[in-house]
Amino acid sequence: MNTPGNLKYSKTHEWVKTEGGLTEIGITDFAQDALGDLVFVNLPEAGDTLSVGEAFADVESVKAVSDIYSPVSGTVAEVNDSLLDSPESINSDPYGAWFIRASDVTATEDLMDAEAYEAFCEEEAAKE
Fold this sequence. Notes:
It is a single chain. The chain is an alpha+beta fold. It has a single domain, classed as CATH 2.40.50.100. Helices cover 23% and strands 37% of the residues. It has four helices and nine strands. The strands form two sheets. Strands 1-2-3-9-8-5 form a six-stranded antiparallel β-sheet. The chain has a three-stranded antiparallel β-sheet with strand order 4-6-7.
């Protein structure tokens, strides 16, 4: 499992990277692996409000449709439209294939560092 140390992570398997006043959000390597081959992505609109724990997008794999939950509160500033044409890029590069960039981000206190996220994933896997 690839877990870059420069990112923060949520318990719903999204990653967060803040740079230059904007926060990128995508799904983790663990999540894309569990979902399987992605064939469709449904993204929000710029200007939409994000709330921690609420779905802001969904992805469709060969297995099922899954919601993507916001790990932070804020406003959608930018959407990665390239995912609409090539959702499979999430599988090949989960940390390069960001879903949205958010502004006015708050509620980041529950995010985990890479070490804590890896431990969380190990606990989740042990339950299965």
